[in-house]
Design goal:
With 236 residues, the chain is α+β, with helices and mostly antiparallel strands. Helices cover 39% and strands 22% of the residues. Strand 4 and strand 5 form a beta hairpin. Helix 1 packs antiparallel against helix 2. The longest helix is centred in the middle third of the chain and has 58 residues.
Amino acid sequence: IAIASSLLTATLPLLILIFAFAYLHLPLSREFDRVNIFQVKVVAKTDQHPATMRLPSSSFLLGTVILAGGAVAAFNLSMQSSVSSAASTNRRDFLSKSAAATASIALPKAVLADDADPYADYTTTESGMKYLVTKEGDGAVPSPGQLVKAHYTGWLDGFDSPKKFDSSRDRGRPFQFKVGAGQVIRGWDESFSTMKVGERRNIILPSRLAYGDRGAGGVIPGGATLYFDVELLGIL
C-alpha cells in the first residue's frame, strides 16, 4: 500500500500537465469557429445552421486538479494515520508488557524485604539472648553479687507494642538487685553482667531465659518471648 501511494503521488503532477497541455494546444478543425475559451460554434459544410458544442472550461479543469490532489492527500493522510495508530498501539503494548515484567521481578524482592529479620543487627549470645546497644556506657562493669540500680521497660510482642507489662520509668523509681545472685530472671543476670554503667540496651529474651512455660502473675503467658529496654544507672 505504501508503494502504491508513493507511485500515485509521483505520477499525478505529470498526468495533470499532460492533460492541461492537450487541452490548451489541441488544434480544432478549420470548420470550427472559436467564439471564446468556453464555447465553440460548429458550422457544417452541408448546411449553414450553426450548432454549438461546449468544451470543458478552465474552471472544470481546475476543479478536477483540486479534487485529484485532495484525493491523494486524503489517501496519504489515511495511511499515515493508520501507521501512526499501529505504532502507538505497539508502544502501548510494549510499555504494558514492560510494566508487567518489572512488577513480576520486583514483587519477590518486596516479599523478601517484608520477611527479613527485623533484628538482624542484634548480637545473639550462646544462650539465645539477643541484644543491641542503643547507648554506650563509660563506667565500670559490675562483678557478680554487686548491687546495681537500673531502669527498664518490658513488652510482649515486640518493642513499643501495646502490650507493655511493666516499667520502672513509668513509676519514676529505679529497680535495685544483685547481679548474678538469681534475684532476677536469667536473661537479666546475663545482660547486666556485661554492661558498663551508663549503658542502655534492647534485649530479647526467649522464654527459657525469662519465665519459661509457667508465665508470671497472669500478665506474662507461658512460653512468651520478652522484649526489654534496660539501662544500668550505677553500682551501689
